Amino acid sequence: MVLEAIKYSRGELDILDQLQLPHTEVYDEVKSAQDAWHAIKEMRTRGAPAIAIVAALGLAVELELIAGKNELSNIAEEVELFIKEKLEYLVTSRPTAVNLADAARKLQKIVQDAAKAQNASGTSVKDAYVKAAEQMLVDDVSDNKAIGEHGADWILKNAAGGKDQVSILTHCNTGSLATAGYGTALGVIRSVHARGSLKRAFCSETRPYNQGSRLTAFELVHDKIPATLVTDSMAAALLRLKGPTENIAAIVVGADRVAANGDTANKIGTYSLAILAKHHGVKFLVAAPRTTIDLETKSGADIVIEERAGKEMTMIKGPCVKGASLDLKQIETVSIAANGIDVWNPAFDVTPAELIDGVVTEKGVVEKGSDGVFHFEDIFAASGSEVKPTTVGGL
Ligand code: MRU
């Protein structure tokens, strides 16, 4: 069964509550932009593409519900303004991932154009918005599958060292739970596995929020992909091993924002992994759709890094262990740090472009050009129908 974190049909949106994973699968109803904002802020839904899609669809559901009650204005400009204000509000939920701001900008443009059209009405503006938001859900899955294939091609060509099978390390959660489906970095692992070329996936725990041990491990077990969990602090020791299984060919991570120069904001701990990869001669790839690449942000220095509550580090929550089983009715929060200690809890870090070997997009893998710099313009110039190159720009 395919893991579905976002269940949508027109007028209805349910999201898998990721705070309750991996032990309990509960869906929350999202009926409005406000519901979506809270789901994102509280991290019941998370991951750059999923954040954008849940926000866009949450507002789509609200518009449908209002229209269903005959409460939608029939004045195009009024609906346009309503949508604009809701999008501006949604963008305030989390600052680092650019996908939401990118989606909001595109949706706003569609709504503006719809409001200017001849015979525009409140309903036609609403319909244009809903259709475009729904298309984002569809496009994200197909983009992720293309990312998976391009990433698999690249790794097997550039990192396998002549072996039939490779082991890959990933960080945080970038799979079906973080996207509309399939995933970005985890999508690459899925594609390598589907070809019979994956020896083993390694996922890092991803402290402090444990997206690796709770969510990526959950997806890997769900899909029966051979996988091993390591703590973040074990990565260096793992990269040193050159055995038949513990021999990492590549580290593949997702992204929350890739700046125009290739500097990449992603889950805290990504930067350390990139440094380790460089030291050990292991390829380091960022997998992300073009909606994560932000040409307006010149470099990593311009990326706002979200800081989260200290209690995410000092406390941990989960079901009680009773003998060999879990008591899912008894969820406890326990303290794991000294009372009174100051806490710094940045949710993301920035990996400099110099440590990144390639950015895997739905249009192909972008490598640095002969000038040592990433050039993303080509993948934005390409239209959907063009042949998708596996490598864009590389040497
Ligand atoms: O704080 P999170 O869980 O939303 O952070 C998620 C990540 O950092 C992911 O790696 C990134 O959003 C890419 S998801 C395809």
TrEMBL record:
Q: Where is the active site?
A: 256
InterPro entries tied to this protein: IF-2B-related, IF-M1Pi, IF_2B-like_C, Initiation_fac_2B_a/b/d, M1Pi_N, NagB/RpiA_transferase-like
Q: Which family does it belong to?
A: Belongs to the eIF-2B alpha/beta/delta subunits family. MtnA subfamily.
Per the record, the major location class is cytoplasm
Keywords for this entry? Amino-acid biosynthesis, Cytoplasm, Isomerase, Methionine biosynthesis, Nucleus
Q: What is any Pfam family matched here?
A: IF-2B
- Write down the top EC class of this protein: isomerase
List the Gene Ontology MF annotations in alphabetical order.
S-methyl-5-thioribose-1-phosphate isomerase activity
Q: What is its EC number?
A: 5.3.1.23
Organism listed in the record: Aureobasidium melanogenum (strain CBS 110374) (Aureobasidium pullulans var. melanogenum)
Provide the gene name from the record.
MRI1
Q: Note the Gene3D superfamilies from the entry.
A: translation initiation factor eif-2b, domain 1, Translation initiation factor eif-2b, domain 2
Q: Name one GO cellular component term.
A: nucleus
Question: Under which name does UniProt file this protein?
Answer: Methylthioribose-1-phosphate isomerase
Q: Which PANTHER family match?
A: METHYLTHIORIBOSE-1-PHOSPHATE ISOMERASE
Does this entry carry the keyword Amino-acid biosynthesis?
A: yes
Q: In which pathway does it act?
A: Amino-acid biosynthesis; L-methionine biosynthesis via salvage pathway; L-methionine from S-methyl-5-thio-alpha-D-ribose 1-phosphate: step 1/6
